[in-house]
Every structure is written in C-alpha cells, then in structure tokens.
Amino acid sequence: SHLLPSGFWHSPECEFLRECIARSQEPVVGTVRLSVFKGQVYILGRESPRSLYNEELV
C-alpha cells in the first residue's frame, strides 16, 4: 500500500505484486450480483461453478 503514494507504480516490486494478483485470479470464475445505493454497495448474491460451499453440509 505504500508503493503508490511513494511514486513506485512502475517499480519492479509493484509490477511483481500486480502480476501475482492477476495470476491468482485466473482460476476465479462466477457471478456476483450487487446493489449500489447512496454510496453503499450491497451483495445480493454470488454463484460459481467452482465454489467450495456446499449447502447440504451446513
């Protein structure tokens, strides 16, 4: 978080962090439904074919 205000957006460390985040999100798939109202964001639902959640186990 200190890299951006310090002017290190194009530094090797910041580029490494951005690449790590991008690669960690490659297997992430699904849909999130949101509602935005008066500056607030509410999650209405989410679903993914790769979800680890199993309602039968709850």
Helical residue percent band: 10-25%
> Looking at the chains present, what oligomeric state does this protein adopt?
single chain
Number of strands: 2
Total separate domains: 1
Any idea what the radius of gyration is? 17 Å
Protein name: argininosuccinate synthase
Keywords: Amino-acid biosynthesis, Arginine biosynthesis, ATP-binding, Ligase, Nucleotide-binding
EC number: 6.3.4.5
Pathway: Amino-acid biosynthesis; L-arginine biosynthesis; L-arginine from L-ornithine and carbamoyl phosphate: step 2/3
What report would you give on this structure?
The chain has 58 residues and is of the alpha+beta class. It has one domain (1-47). The chain contains one helix and two strands, in the order αββ. The chain has one helix at 12-24, and strands spanning 31-37, 40-47. Strands 1-2 form a two-stranded antiparallel ribbon. The model has no long low-confidence stretch (mean pLDDT 89).
Summarize the structure.
The chain has 58 residues and is of the alpha+beta class.
State the main characteristics:
single chain, 58 residues, alpha+beta, two-stranded antiparallel sheet, 1 helix, 2 strands, 22% helix, 26% strand, flat, AS_cat/multimer_dom_body, argininosuccinate synthase activity, amino-acid biosynthesis
Write the layout of secondary structure elements.
Blueprint: H1 12-24, E1 31-37, E2 40-47
Antiparallel strand pairs: 1-2
